[in-house]
């Protein structure tokens, strides 16, 4: 069944009123907008989903230790797809009356969002996985890529705690309440990631997104933040096809001395030490190591010849903190470690020096130009100078270029000149003669495949023009120089075939490609490559994969001497052929890049296409076309295809090995052939038997890849500032993300902040709005430090700031330039909306535009709400919103200072939604409650380490105020809701304070 037919069946079932096959029987309400958005895209449809759930699972006890958990079955005692109510959980686990149940195990769980999506092709799957990873779903990956391409969108913020069994719960009620709070925190994080994913889907259009590394988007998850994922999927990692006999082998280095696990690292550095006896490699830092994987500051010495590994003991008190993403450069006997990252928000600019003769560290104090903090930059040594380009600091990607003079210890920023490279990180640099070469990297949107050289004597960059097939775009790779060749190895996105080594002849500027024979377990991502004599020594590298967990690559080496000698007659890939229809290009210096197609008769077209797709030979960037009235079909193929065929023709009269290259006694049929069992050699033989020939592509009909809004904006603004003669450094201030409020696109306050932008403001804002497909464009400003807390949003394109925003079925309308609106309070608004308030009178002391007034009235069905507000702009919006939501008859607006206007002795509950503190109105809140008491929802900001002190202060203060007002109340904190992080280590929390009248 074709993709479109399967999708139509799924969509029909979703629109049906019948229950589905899940235990619940219906879609989870919180992710219906996300499911609809995915299913509206022609390249995707969802096959199963869960929005995330908090549950208690009851599983029968088993006497069979070999029986898996799933096989034991079980049932849910409690399930919630939203924030869980601790009291409901406690009443289930600790009922007031004993009930007889069969004895079964009880497990408390939180499970995050998971969605299974079938994709039209591998390219669209990679795009969606990439987008999901960038939004925090870092365990997303391709779980199947054969006839159906299925991906799973998920993350790792899980929780599973055994509670005991139905005969005896082994934990206390207080601990269960704590578990529910932890699970609710995770549910809120899950909700935010889901909303971010939905927003990105809605703003990314056709979803042709680049491959990403985990860790490009800042998130406060220690382990996941350091993990990498090649193509963002499990399939590419687990399914390296591996062509037998493709080329030279990658040999293992047998490590002795210390455990090899010490070299299970990525994001580390490695330098070659050259002493009088032999060369060794010194390794510093990185993520991984023995035991629990973490950032390291170990100093290791590897002898590639003997395989001996030892830990270097350093002398002195100081040493660098654990880090990754730094660089280490050897100048004489001194190794200079620059920058790096010690945590998600701890980016470094420091420079440490290691005296390799004395094994002692020293932190340097460098002068000259200010060197900003960064990680994932690149460095190269020329003489006594270290050249550093690019890097990353949170959302800032650098295009600046610095020199560190290791003699004077002064930094110097090099002014822009020549063909200046764009901002990037995770690229690689190496020095050769008087030039520094830089290849690849990531610019915040896509992997790069450009090659630049910097002439040290002239002080200018140059974008190199080369012949032969360029290496595929990549980042987090390694490069090296051996004899007259520059080599490029590994990186992201991980290719779907065995490892390829790209070699550039530095004299001819000509690329050659050698396929290294690998068994499919090597993952050279964020690894290091050092030339030791005639060997390439590869240390570290790996990824964290959803399907297979953390993967590290063991130490390897490749004989470069053997490799080059065995491939001296290897022509560049553009001249590789396997039939006489291809041109023979004799003058290598005049070679041009050609495109090729594989031509098949129409009756073999489907079989040929499936083979090309299986081995990654089909070029999805060009269109398939027919010739001779449809008799023949031409499939565009990658240049990698020719490398395989050249190797095939080059050995023994067009045979790779005798046993495989024989005609099939039973030719495979188009229906039911065992494609998965085909080897590379068998596939080539089959294509030849069916008359396949390779031709120059005379059509070259490229598919138009939709550009992301960020790419469109970047290209447009770059062209504008070049035309206006403004410096390219301004491009570092372009926003990489934005918010949408109604039809207004809101840029961050840190974007376009340089005053030079003002000189081109009229053209600039119109161009940015058009690029982002915005009807109106605005830039955020800080909330005014006034009592009315006015918004400082600046409208850049558009007439006014009035917007309509619908949330949880409630319409909020307001002037965004005058009234603030916070998305972060959504969980608290939902919590208030779930209350049963139909017989209650509520006082909201800080009503604003109706943030909590409307949920109380529309969802919680409050009997009456008194709304206190003194900002006239907010009152105008509140009046409009009450009418628009048809609840104006149950709300009384009290304009002015609530300490004067608020009613007394009327409220069943009072909302105090003011940050950073609502303490100025605590007396007013107590007076507003009925004499018999009620509930106060007290908002405030507190340090995460001082939450208990804050709740004690709230409780004691309310108790004292009640006494001073003549009330005999028992005051207790029923619940503390952690709404969001307001600032680092500062939480927005809400205390539900119960005030009960004491009976005398």
Structure description:
This protein is of the alpha+beta class and 1000 residues long. 20% of the residues lie in helices and 31% in strands. The strands form 15 sheets. A 7-stranded mixed beta sheet has the order 54-53-52-55-56-58-57, sandwiched between helices. A hairpin with a 4-residue loop joins strand 31 (447-455) and strand 32 (460-463). Helix 3 (86-93) packs across helix 5 (173-203). The longest helix is centred in the N-terminal third of the chain and has 31 residues, at 173-203. The radius of gyration is 32 Å and the shape is globular. Mean pLDDT is 81; it is low at 208-247, 565-593 and 649-673.
Going by helix content, strand content and strand pairing, the class is alpha+beta
Helix content: 10-25%
Largest sheet: 7 strands, mixed
Q: How far is the N terminus from the C terminus?
A: 76 Å
């Amino acid at each position: 069944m074709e993709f479109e037919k399967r999708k139509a069946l799924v969509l029909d079932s979703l629109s049906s009123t019948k229950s589905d096959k899940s235990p619940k029987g219906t879609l989870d309400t919180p992710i219906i907008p996300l499911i609809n958005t995915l299913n509206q895209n022609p390249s995707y449809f969802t096959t199963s989903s869960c929005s995330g759930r908090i549950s208690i699972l009851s599983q029968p006890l088993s006497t069979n230790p070999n029986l898996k958990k799933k096989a034991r079955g079980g049932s849910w005692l409690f399930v919630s797809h939203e924030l869980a109510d601790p009291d409901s959980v406690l009443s289930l686990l600790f009922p007031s009356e004993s009930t007889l149940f069969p004895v079964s195990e009880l497990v408390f769980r939180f499970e995050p969002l998971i969605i299974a999506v079938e994709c039209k092709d591998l390219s669209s799957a990679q795009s969606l996985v990439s987008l999901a990873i960038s939004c925090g779903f870092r365990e997303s990956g391709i779980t199947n890529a054969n006839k159906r391409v299925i991906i799973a969108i998920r993350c790792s913020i899980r929780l599973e705690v055994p509670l005991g069994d139905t005969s005896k719960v082994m934990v206390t009620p207080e601990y269960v309440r704590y578990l529910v709070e932890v699970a609710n925190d995770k549910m809120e994080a899950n909700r935010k990631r889901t909303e971010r994913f939905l927003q990105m889907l809605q703003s990314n259009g056709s979803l042709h997104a680049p491959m990403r590394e985990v860790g490009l988007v800042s998130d406060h998850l220690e382990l996941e933040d350091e993990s990498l994922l090649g193509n963002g999927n499990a399939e590419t990692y687990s399914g390296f096809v591996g062509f037998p006999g493709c080329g030279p082998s990658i040999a293992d280095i047998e490590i002795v001395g210390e455990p090899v696990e010490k070299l299970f690292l990525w994001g580390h550095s490695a330098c070659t030490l050259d002493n009088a006896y032999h060369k060794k490699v010194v390794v510093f830092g990185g993520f991984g190591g023995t035991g629990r994987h973490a950032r390291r500051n170990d100093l290791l010495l590897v002898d590639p010849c003997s395989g001996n590994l030892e830990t270097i003991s350093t002398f002195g008190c100081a040493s660098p903190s654990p880090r990754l993403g730094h660089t280490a450069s050897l100048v004489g006997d001194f190794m200079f470690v620059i920058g790096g990252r010690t945590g998600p928000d701890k980016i470094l600019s420091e420079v440490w020096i290691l005296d390799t003769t004395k094994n002692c560290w020293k932190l340097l104090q460098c002068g000259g130009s200010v060197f900003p903090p960064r990680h994932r930059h690149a460095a190269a040594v020329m003489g006594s100078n270290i050249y550093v380009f690019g890097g990353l600091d949170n959302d800032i990607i650098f295009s600046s270029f610095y020199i560190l003079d290791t003699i004077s210890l002064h930094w110097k920023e090099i002014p822009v000149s020549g063909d200046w490279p764009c901002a990037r990180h995770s690229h690689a640099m190496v020095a050769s003669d008087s030039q520094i070469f830089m290849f690849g990297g990531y610019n915040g949107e896509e992997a790069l495949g450009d090659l630049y050289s910097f002439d040290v004597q002239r002080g200018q960059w140059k974008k190199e023009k080369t012949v032969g097939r360029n290496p595929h775009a990549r980042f987090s790779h390694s490069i090296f120089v051996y004899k007259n060749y520059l080599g490029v190895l590994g990186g992201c996105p991980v290719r779907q075939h065995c490892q390829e080594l790209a070699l550039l002849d530095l004299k001819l500027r000509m690329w050659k490609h050698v396929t290294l024979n690998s068994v499919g377990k090597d993952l050279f991502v964020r690894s290091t490559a050092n030339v030791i004599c005639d060997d390439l020594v590869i240390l570290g590298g790996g990824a964290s994969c959803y399907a297979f967990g953390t993967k590290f690559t063991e130490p390897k080496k490749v004989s470069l001497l053997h490799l080059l000698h065995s491939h001296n007659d290897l022509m560049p890939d553009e001249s590789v052929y396997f039939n006489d229809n291809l041109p023979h290009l004799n003058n290598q210096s005049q070679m041009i890049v050609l495109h090729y197609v594989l031509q098949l008769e129409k009756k073999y077209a489907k079989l040929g296409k499936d083979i090309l797709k299986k081995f990654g030979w089909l070029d999805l960037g060009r269109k398939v076309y027919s010739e001779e009235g449809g008799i023949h079909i031409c499939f565009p193929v990658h240049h990698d295809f020719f490398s395989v065929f050249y190797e095939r023709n080059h050995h023994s009269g067009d045979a790779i090995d005798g046993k495989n290259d024989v005609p099939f006694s039973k030719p495979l049929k188009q229906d039911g052939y065992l494609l998965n069992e085909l080897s590379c050699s068998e596939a080539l033989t089959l294509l030849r038997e069916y008359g396949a020939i390779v031709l120059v592509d005379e059509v070259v009909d490229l598919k138009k890849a939709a550009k992301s809004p960020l790419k469109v904006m970047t290209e447009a603004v770059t062209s504008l500032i070049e035309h206006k003669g403004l410096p390219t450094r301004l491009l570092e201030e372009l926003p990489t993300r934005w918010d949408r409020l109604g039809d207004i696109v809101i840029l961050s306050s840190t974007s376009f902040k340089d005053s030079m932008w003002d000189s081109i403001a009229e053209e600039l804002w119109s161009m940015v709005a058009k690029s982002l497909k915005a009807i109106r464009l605005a830039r955020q400003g800080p909330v005014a430090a006034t009592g009315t807390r006015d918004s400082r949003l600046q409208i850049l394109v558009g007439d006014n700031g009035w917007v309509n925003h619908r949330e949880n079925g409630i319409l909020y309308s307001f002037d965004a330039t005058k009234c603030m609106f916070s998305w972060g309070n959504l969980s608290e608004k939902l919590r208030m909306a779930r209350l049963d308030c139909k017989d209650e009178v509520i006082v909201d002391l800080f009503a604003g535009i109706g943030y909590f007034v409307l949920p109380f009235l529309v969802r919680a069905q409050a009997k009456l709400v008194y709304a206190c507000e003194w900002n006239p702009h907010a009152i105008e919006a509140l009046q409009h919103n009450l009418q628009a939501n048809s609840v104006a008859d149950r709300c009384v607006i009290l304009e002015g200072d609530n300490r004067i206007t608020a009613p007394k002795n009327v409220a069943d509950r009072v909302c105090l939604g003011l940050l950073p503190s609502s303490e100025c109105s605590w007396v007013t809140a107590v007076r507003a409650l009925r004499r018999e008491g009620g509930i106060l929802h007290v908002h405030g900001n507190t340090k995460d380490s001082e939450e208990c002190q804050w709740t004690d202060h709230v409780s004691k203060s309310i108790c004292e105020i009640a006494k001073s007002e003549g009330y005999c109340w028992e005051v207790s904190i029923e619940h503390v809701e952690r709404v969001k992080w307001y600032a680092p280590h500062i939480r927005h929390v809400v205390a539900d304070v119960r005030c009960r009248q004491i009976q005398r």
